[in-house]
Amino acid sequence: MPGIVIVGLQWGDEGKGKASAYLAKGASLAVRFNGGANAGHTVTLGSMSLSLHMLPAATVSTRAAAIGPGVYLDLEEMLKDVRRLEEAVGKIEVIVSPRAHLVTPLQLALDAKIEEVRGGASIGTTRRGIGPTALHKYGRLGLRLCDVLEGGEAEALAEIWRRLWGGVVSVKSEEALKSVKRLAEEVRWMVGDVPSAIMSRLSAGETVIFEGAQGTMLDIDHGTYPYVTSSHTTSAAAAIGSGVGLKAIDSVVGIAKAYTTRVGAGPFPTEIAGPIADAIRRRGGEYGATTGRPRRIGWLDIPQLRYACMLNSVDQIFLTRLDTLATQERVEICVKYEGVKEPFPDTVEALKRVKPVYLEMEGWPEIGEAEREKLRREGYGALHRAARRYVEKIEEELGSVIKYIGIGPRIEDVIMK
User: What are phi and psi of 348, to 5 degrees?
Assistant: First the structure.
């Protein structure tokens, strides 16, 4: 009964979509267990690039998806995903937990308002309403899908929202409720028992992929708070956010880029600027799938990755975008921090003060289509010696096995080590 959790080990955008779709070959179900439409997973099918915001990207391989109760559910975005995915791969099965909390136009408006009030100290959210939805959920004022479909509780909540936020944003709570009611009826046929769907497949010996959103460093408890998301992004969240026990999880695959990126505000110890950063951004298409914002670029950060591997109990690593670093004459790895006592700082102020210590390594040539074909045919041994040294140095520093290496944008552009 293989239950495999896919988690990002950096600040998100590690290539989880491609990795999940690759690892889901032969799996029977892909589960989304956290986050909301602020996450965008992109997969490349042939010449087509497909961005999904609510459905797990692994659905392109499984043709069956589940949205767990730990997800902040934007019904409109989910329906767009369903249409987009069915146009690309054909009919899919979708099971949505009735316990998932809903993002409404009210939360979207509140998100924008909070960022406006923060001014120069804004977090840099995607303004998809995730923070305010979490605020309502944990304040026990949240609106779940089942509450809308059954009625009663939803009307009472709308009145509380009106009293709380009527003078803050222009969106009326009654109108917000009306819009989600219409969308909820459209998805009524998808509502089902997600935990039972997962466990029945696992009991039958089938593989289930639990696909996380965002990355470890955006975790609400363990990330670079307050520059984080409003959910748990580590592997332990897969069980809670799906509604299954810890024994349903067999292994954890951590996804890391061969370099580091970050979107939005917050500390970023290995950030670089100038021509090298511009070249990596251009080669890697480093622009947010949700917002289109250019991502901040940095060298690989071993202290940060070591911390993330520990938090997630990572069994193996899927290293993506090795091809993006190709053609750089020299590449660098941050092997340690100076100016900090603990393995990874607890506060953003402490993280701002660290001084990264870099190891410079030889770069490697372009990995074009001909090279990809050869690598897919001959495997890891055919990789350029400098690229192999880079991969093996990461393994040595982390004490973790890199089992999969991404060498291109398509799902099949992967070699196993």
Answer: -70, -30
Sheet holding 271-272, edge to edge: 260-262, 296-298, 271-272
Burial class (CB in 10 A: 0-12, 13-18, 19+), 344: buried
The one catalytic residue in 41, 53, 136, 232 is: 41
CA distance 34 to 232: 7
Contacts of 313 (CB under 8 A, 6+ apart): 235, 252
Helices assigned H by DSSP within 119-189: 130-138, 145-150, 153-165, 173-187
pTM of the model: 0.93
pLDDT at 114 (0 to 100)? 85
Residue 323 is among the residues annotated as catalytic for this protein: no
Residue 290 pLDDT level (bands cut at 50, 70, 90): low
The rounded distance, in Å, linking the Cα atoms of 325 and 386 is 11
- pLDDT above 90 for 343: no
Q: Is 13 a catalytic residue?
A: yes
The string of pLDDT tens digits covering residues 124-163 is 667 788 999 999 999 999 999 999 998 777 888 988 999 9
Exactly one of 13, 219, 323, 413 is catalytic; name it. Answer: 13
Yes or no: say if 317 and 401 are a contact pair by the CB < 8 Å rule: yes
Residues 335 and 397: beta-carbon distance below 8 Å: yes
Domains of the chain by start residue, with CATH: 3-98+191-253 (3.40.440.10), 101-187 (1.10.300.10), 256-416 (3.90.170.10)
User: How far apart (Å, rounded) are the C-alpha atoms in residues 74 and 76?
Assistant: 6
In terms of Cα–Cα distance, which of 217, 227, 210 is closest to 9? 217
At which residue do the structure tokens 């695959």 appear?
253
In sequence order, which residues have a C-beta less than 8 Å from that of residue 275 and are 6 or more positions away? none
